[in-house]
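We modelled the chain as a single entity of 190 amino acids. Its sequence is:
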Amino acid sequence: MTPMMFFAILIFALTYVLIMTEWINKMTAALLGGFIVVTVGLVGQVRAYNAVDWNVIFLLIGMMMVMSVLKETGVFEYVAIKTAKAAKAKPIRIMLFMFAVTAVVSAILDNVTTVMMLVPIALLIASELKISPVPFIITMAIASNIGGTATMIGDPPNIMIGSATDYTFIEFIYHLAPHEHHNKFDIHVK
């Protein structure tokens, strides 16, 4: 192991410890680790810049902007009230409805934005019904992951895959959808 490799591992380990322990802000720790790696010359500026998938960054920025606008409109409270009324205030029905809503919204928006939009609804409903919000939140997290896999914009890794493969939005959905196809990689057991 060369000294530069050891130094890179050391920076990575220290950054990871700072992120895990939250002694400083996670973003600050990550940026500091990246700054040190570039400053000492372990990775060049151009290579570091090119390693960033800007499609993901700008999608997340755009989604956060959409969320902040929607938050101001009161749409979250509206959805909460409609969901509770449609489920006749029965917690299990509300949970199932929220699961479906979360999965559909997560296919249209990214997972992070979906959870940030819908968890406050679950908290509001649980508070009004005087029940624990934990089952709702866990169910919504699962639904968000399931719905997020459906489209290219549903999850940041999907955006990276779409960018790397040059698939269109529809092609991505087609290749992700379950359907019977045979290719040279199929394994046939005799």
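As a brief sanity check on the tokenised model: The CA atoms of residues 52 and 158 lie 15 Å apart. The mean pLDDT is 84.
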